[in-house]
Amino acid sequence: MLNAKTALVTGSTSGIGLGIAQALAAQGANVMLNGFGDVEAAKAEVAKAATGGAKVGYHGADMSKPAEIEAMVKACEEQFGALDILVNNAGIQHVAPVEEFPVERWDAIIAINLSSAFHAIRVALPGMKARGYGRIINVASVHGLVASAQKSAYVAAKHGIIGLTKTVALETATTPITVNAICPGWVLTPLVQKQVDARAAQGGISNEEAKRQLLAEKQPSLQFTTPEELAGLTIFLCSPAASNLRGAAINVDGGWVAQ
Ligand code: NAD
Fold it and tell me: Would residue 258 count as lying in a domain?
């Protein structure tokens, strides 16, 4: 149980972040949500999952803006008295060959998928050190371990966040704060549904066939990883059993990187 702990999950109004936020609240942790879109629906879902009087907050920081990230971490500490579990999850995707890659998309992906984690970590760490507990979980990707064509910015950012994970894990190795990365394969969230839709449109095939092809290309289990599975791993990483698990990049990918 994570009673009396407080978590901040970036990009938690949808997909993987929402699943992780629900699981943390179900363990009794207060959760501060972040992200765009249907905020009220996300708050209601996490509140429904909450046990033991866990509270749900929200901060609308744009994860491409360092000053807003800093303000969000401070707001979490002020509102709940702590920030014990930081899940850096917000992320976006853009698919294009490198010579056609829009410069503005490159900058946005590096800012949101990589630099945001640096800013949240640097502001959150002093409080974790002072309180003597911390879990930093970076949602990277199999694309932090291997590449795919047409995803230069995403692959660069995800490889970068694994490097950041290892570095901060070393800097905190003698403290009660652990830092690890989770590397999902395909998860059927809005981020991936866009890629399914593009494949269906390009190939003139059904949505189901596009999903089947997407999985067959990379994910040997032929099953999507689920937000619930990633949430289960997150809860484990927050537990005492994971106290000496440091600087790891754990793939949950149906065998993708085993090939
Ligand atoms: P999603 O599109 O469902 O959710 C993304 C979340 O990030 C949303 O809450 C969105 O509002 C938020 N967000 C986007 N830009 C933001 C910004 N500038 N400021 C604040 N919030 C912002 O996507 P998802 O698939 O759940 O992705 C979550 C994370 O998991 C990402 O880092 C992604 O790279 C990673 N990931 C996803 C998959 C997959 O197959 N879906 C695989 C590996 C890794």
Answer: no
Q: Do 142 and 217 share a domain, yes or no? A: no
196 and 85 co-located in one domain? no
Q: What is the mean pLDDT of residues 171-199?
A: 96
Report the atom number in ligand 1 closest to the C-alpha of 158. 34
Residue 187, ligand 1, Cβ within 6 A: yes
Annotated catalytic sites, by residue?
Answer: 154
| pTM (two decimals) | 0.98
> Is 111 inside any structural domain?
yes
User: Is residue 190 in contact with ligand 1, taking CB distance under 6 Å?
Assistant: yes
Token pair, residue 218, equals 């990379």
Distance 51 CA to ligand 1 centre (A): 25
* Pair 218, 234 in one domain: no
Q: Which sign, positive or negative, has the C-alpha torsion 228, 234, 236, 238?
A: negative
pLDDT digits (tens, 9 = 90+) for 89-115: 999 999 999 999 999 999 999 999 999
Q: Say whether both 56 and 169 belong to one domain.
A: yes
